[in-house]
Amino acid sequence: MDVRQLRYFLGIVEHGSISRAAETLRVAQPALSLHLKRMEEDFGCQLVLRTARGVVPTESGRRLAQRAAALIGQMDGLRDEVRAVEAVPAGPATVGIPTSLGPVLTVPLALAVRRTHPQIRLRVVEGLSGHMLEWVLSGQLDLALVFGTKEMGGLETELVARERLHLVGPADDPLLRGRNAIPFAEALSLPLILPGRPHGVREEVEHAALLARASVTVALEIDALEQIKALVAEGCGYTVLSDRVARHGAAAERLTGLPIVDPQIDRTILLAHAAGRPMSAAARATHGILSGILAGLTQDGGWR
């Protein structure tokens, strides 16, 4: 027995006629009679009496009709409730955004979610990209932007953009002045200030160095982007960033950069969520809004 059979039975009782019920329900009369017969066999009793004026429910049939009406009402209410969840997303949604992308994403995302879905309780977590991977996999984040090109087990990812990496140094640095680019081998020979593993730019640099059979000279490891840029501006070393990241922040006016060549190093930006763990309606709605913002940035040059 299923909900469809209960609906058929209610139709027979309400119309007092199998033929009229069949017409209203748009079911062939023989098929409806067969459904009724099977229900009576399942319950082991007669559910309706056939008379010259139609059918009337037995006492058992009346009890079934009452309970069936209540059950169908609950099912319809449940369906409406579930559809409302999708139509009006509500509840928590947690998004991870790397510090380097926060200035162009966090406020627009918060405003768009607030205006479009005010019942979503958005939480944005900013940090270095290496942490984002761990937090998505552990369930602390519903989705996050991450960097990298390698296979990421346990994650479903979407390509957002690619950025070219630059060697960044003090604005008055004579080594960088008057040049258009710097070879990767020369950049590796300089004292670098980088975040520790497994953060995105560190892995990109070390992967490129591995392919070039070279080593990376790390003078300082600091897991804080603005502090890295401040130390570089003070002449404590160099770092590797995209041009977009180098041009934002308190130390931006005191920095300069050159694109890295031979080889060129690109950083891939991905939008990721845990594979095999369904996102809530609130998280899916937030994902859609964030995807739209990212698409707009890539189209109008917002990454540069």
Structure at a glance:
The protein is built from eleven helices and twelve strands.
Number of helices: 11
Q: Specify the CATH architecture of the largest domain.
A: 3-Layer(aba) Sandwich
Helix content: 40-55%
Distance between the termini: 62 Å
Globally, the shape reads rod-shaped
The SSE order reads: HHHEEHEHEHEEEHEHEHEHEEH
CATH topology of the largest domain: D-Maltodextrin-Binding Protein, domain 2
- Radius of gyration computed on alpha carbons: 32 Å
Task: Summarize model confidence as the mean pLDDT.
Answer: 88
Largest sheet: 8 strands, mixed
Which runs of at least 5 residues are low in confidence (pLDDT < 50)?
Answer: none
Strand content: 15-25%
**CATH superfamily membership of the largest domain:** Periplasmic binding protein-like II
> What number of structural domains do the residues give?
3
Question: Can you walk me through this structure?
Answer:
The protein is of the alpha/beta class and 304 residues long. It has three domains: 3-72, Winged helix-like DNA-binding domain superfamily/Winged helix DNA-binding domain (Arc Repressor Mutant, subunit A), CATH 1.10.10.10; 89-161 and 268-300, D-Maltodextrin-Binding Protein, domain 2; 162-265, D-Maltodextrin-Binding Protein, domain 2 (3-Layer(aba) Sandwich), CATH 3.40.190. Helices cover 46% and strands 24% of the residues. It has helices at residues 3-15, 18-25, 29-43, 59-87, 102-116, 129-138, 184-188, 200-211, 225-233, 243-246, 281-299, and strands at 48-51, 54-57, 91-98, 120-127, 143-147, 155-170, 182-183, 192-194, 218-221, 239-242, 255-261, 266-274. The strands form three sheets. Strands 3, 4, 5, 6, 7, 10, 11 and 12 form an eight-stranded mixed β-sheet that branches. Strands 1-2 form a two-stranded antiparallel ribbon. Helix 8 links the parallel strand 8 (192-194) and strand 9. Helix 1 (3-15) crosses helix 2, helix 1 (3-15) crosses helix 4 and helix 5 (102-116) packs across helix 11. The model has no long low-confidence stretch (mean pLDDT 88). This is LysR family transcriptional regulator.
